[in-house]
Amino acid sequence: MKKLGKQDLLLMYRNLVRTRKFDELNIRMATEGKLLTFYHSCQGHEAIGVGACTGLRKDDYLYPHHRGHGLSYAIAKGVNPRECIAEHLGRATGWGGGITGFHTCVPEFGILGVGATIGSGFVLSVGFALAAKKRGEGQITIMFTGDGGIQRGQFHEAANMASVWKLPVVWVVENNQMAWFTPYRDTSAVEDIATLAASYNMPGEIVDGMDVLAVHTAVQKAVERARSGEGPSLIECKTYRYRSHSEGRPDVSHYLPRSKEEIAKWKERDPVKLFEEKLLKEKVLTKALIQKISQECDAEAEEAETFGFESPFPDPSNLSKMVYAP
Amino acid sequence: MKELSYWNAISEAIAEEMKRDETVFVIGENVQESPFLVTKGLVQQFGPDRVMDAPLSELAIAGATVGAAMAGYRPICDLTFADFIYCAADEVLMKAAQQYFSHNAKVNVPCVFLGVAGAGFGNGPEHSRIPAAMVMNNPGLKLVMPSTPYDAKGLMKAAIRDNNPVCFFFHKKCMPMKQEIPDEEYIIPLGVADVKRVGSDVTVVATSYMVHLALEAAKNLEDIISVEVIDLRSLVPLDIDAIITSVKKTGRVVVVDEDTECCGVAAEIGQQIMERAFDYLDAPVARVCAANMPIAGAAMEKYVIPQLAQVQNAIEAAAGSGFSA
């Protein structure tokens, strides 16, 4: 496993901050009624995408989670997140060309597209991994979903198939303990998702999803296993959703408000703050640098907003030409 | 020229395309033994990595197909029975059909969903459908339903080379049919109907095995009515021009389709005829389809699925009826 140097750590920290700032931008624009679609905030989840996608090859296939609509994953892989903002404003410069409102699709970075039914990424990632295995160039596939995703049949069929065929795929489940408004504990037969891996004869690991380095280490191990032809892995990141399922919705568990104490308790281990404190202690970061990075990320988000609003809408006369490929 | 059966024509097309293009592979349940024969013998020729016997997992089979297609391959997904497309609806209808459009035409999904379709063997409601209207109602999918060995081969080659997901439904009742097939390569482009019988009194627009019922009815009636039979061959793209040309000549049309009547293939074609050729019609557009009920099995099947007598009666009625002045 490649050891992370100071520059890698700083980049990870910057990407955590960028994710948070771009998430805040989407939330603000949603609140102001500017988004032409819905938004599912990723606050609380940032360390997972950033930790897991740092160090991937550009041609590795990536299927992001719907939280943040792909932000942390795409950012860590090197995609300019202004494409995300433009997509949410319905502009032609968005990463889906302004066609879907939020789907992530950046093929040159291995993001071939996403679906919007939770858990459907499991079987598509089997296909990406099958193609990678056939091609034999060492590509792997990494796919993210939530705890609700493993409750669909797609997970179980994909896990079995990928394990039998030893496909190079890593599945990262972000267990924030809520699927929409329904708590995981009331709808799942097992406490830890990682234990399901044993049923399909693959490794399953539980990771602190608030710790970017813990995520990175666990995912890199699984990536190496996949690259060397040993097959799939399942990684469960324990995390927490700070906000409601999507912006503007009530923040409830079943039908009652979620516990404010519980939310506050998880925020004490905020993934951005946690990493910031660690890097401060290790003198990789300084107060001045933190402020500088924060300002730069604010400026980047501001530019992205301007870029989005100044971009043209897609030409509706093209829609009918895109139903079928030539 | 050589004589090939319907299934053999399909398997020969697949073998030729697998030889020509290394990105083509077959994935599905029992594709090595191939209970419906269309992939039989391929594993001996191309090995198990390109003729993949999969677990009994329609979601994973169809999902792997879509994913591999997005990642640069041309998979042929054997659904076994066409009815099983309902099991993999998320993968086929939402992902295969829509990924190209929804991601701004950046990523193609070139693949074939192969399914044995149709009634005739009393197999009941979950093994006898041709889910044609549902496929037509999901833009992004193409749909091919060949009626003869010659067409099946040429259309399969076109389907594999197409840059879109193509549902290729072959009919159980056509399986033993044989026909002379040229030795040299040929491809039948999707979206080109074939006039299987030339006539001047009534046009019958038919699909899949219903083409053979239409031809039989036409023959039985040949002394009294001159029937033109159009085999659509592919429903998406639909060769509406071929239908309209014939309707303008005959002024009378019967659409014969084995899928369920309500919101069905015939309903769509009838509407399009009305929109484009209303002034040429001398009688209302008639249709013969599966009755609006699940497909019954065993001895009850024939009370749901179109039978020869119904087709014949519909043609006679169309020939004899007319709008009053």
Describe this structure in words.
The complex is a heterodimer of chains A (326) and B (325). With 326 residues, chain A is an alpha/beta fold. Helix content of chain A is 41%, strand content 11%. Chain A is built from 10 helices and 9 strands. Chain A has helices spanning 6-31, 46-53, 71-77, 82-88, 121-135, 153-164, 212-227, 260-267, 271-281, 287-310; strands spanning 61-63, 141-146, 169-175, 178-179, 182-183, 204-208, 233-238, 252-253, 256-257. In chain A, the strands form 3 sheets. In chain A, strands 1-2-3-7-6 form a 5-stranded parallel sheet, with helices on both faces. In chain A, strand 2, helix 6 and strand 3 (169-175) form a beta-alpha-beta unit. The longest helix of chain A has 26 residues, at 6-31. Chain A is globular and about 50 Å long. Chain A starts with 5 loop residues before the first helix and ends in a 16-residue tail after the last helix. The mean pLDDT of chain A is 97. Chain B is α/β, with parallel strands linked by helices. Chain B has 2 domains: 2-181, Thiamin diphosphate (ThDP)-binding fold, Pyr/PP domains (Rossmann fold, 3-Layer(aba) Sandwich); 194-320, Rossmann fold, CATH 3.40.50.920. Chain B has helices at 6-20, 42-46, 58-70, 89-96, 99-102, 132-136, 149-161, 210-220, 240-250, 265-277, 308-320, and strands at 2-5, 24-28, 51-53, 74-81, 111-117, 142-144, 165-171, 178-181, 194-197, 202-206, 227-231, 234-236, 253-260, 286-290. Chain B is globular, with a radius of gyration of 19 Å. The N and C termini of chain B lie far apart (53 Å). Chains A and B meet through helix 5 and helix 6 of A and helix 3, helix 4 and helix 5 of B.
